[in-house]
Amino acid sequence: MVAAIAYFTMGSNLGFTPIQVEFARSNPRVHGTYREIFYVRYIDWVITTPLLLLDLLLTAGLPWPTILYTLVIDEIMIITGLVGALVVSDYKWGYFTFGCAALFVIAWTLTWTARKHASALGADVSRVYLMTGVLTIFLWFLYPIAWGICEGGNVIAPDSEAIFYGILDLFAKPVFGALLLWGHRGIDPGRLGLHIRDYDEDPAIHGGVHSGAHGEKSTAAEPPQNGVDGAQQA
Question: Which of 99, 114, 148, 152 could disulfide-link 60, Cβ–Cβ 3.0 to 4.6 Å?
Fold first, then answer.
């Protein structure tokens, strides 16, 4: 839904701001002194990429501190990319470097730490993690290239930029999601440390816990009653 709103906005030629280019090109498609920077794309990414990353890290069964740390690094990567795109001077490449450093931290977590955790959970978990993890890492390393020739270097036109990013987003989101769901079809979430109860099976909803609680209260109340009865008989 978030990505659909973002692409609807960009398709309506909204959600952008003109930024003076650092590199003026002779190509008539990008020969102007200003370039459209679609900040709405980064709003999309700052919401959706942590969710995609969370899916992968939960599949690997990583502990929550590691997951939260990695998600913060992901937000840093997206925000530095946005700031770099909006900066007019060559300082933009400093923000680009920070973003790439954050990407390498994420890649290290996915290729080393998370992969080891997924392997320890079984062959089926390892298989689905490798399938979706390799796809994610491959695609995510193409995004800095797209940034370098679009917002950064002003090499290709915004229309070509939209196609480039659109293809990447298509594989990184719906295709990734379909593969993940397909891979999880036979995996018990409990093996991943996820304790999920279905509404129809929840005893707290259907009276199992409450009935037990009443039963315990009744049992606990019986000894005093017996004591009173015994005193009366005496």
Answer: 114
Helix (H, G, I), strand (E, B) or coil at 34: strand
Give φ, ψ of 19 to 5 degrees.
Answer: -125, 135
What are the distances in angstroms from CA 234 to CA 222, 226, 231?
18, 12, 5
**Is the separation of the CB atoms in 114 and 129 below 8 Å?**
yes
pTM over the 0.70 mark: yes
Question: Dihedral through CA 76, CA 77, CA 83, CA 84, nearest 10?
Answer: 140
Q: Which of 37, 14, 79 is nearest to 165 (CA)?
A: 37
From the list 32, 40, 12, the residue with the least C-alpha distance to 154 is: 32
Nearest CA among 17, 71, 111, 172 for reference residue 119: 111
φ and ψ of 113, to 5 deg: -65, -55
CA distance 170 to 41: 13
Query: Which of these, 131, 234, 108, 123, lies nearest to 182 by C-alpha position?
Result: 131
pLDDT in tens, 74-130: 999 999 999 999 999 999 999 999 999 999 999 999 999 999 999 998 899 999 999
Cα-trace Rg, the chain: 27
d(CA 176, CA 197) in angstroms, rounded, equals: 25
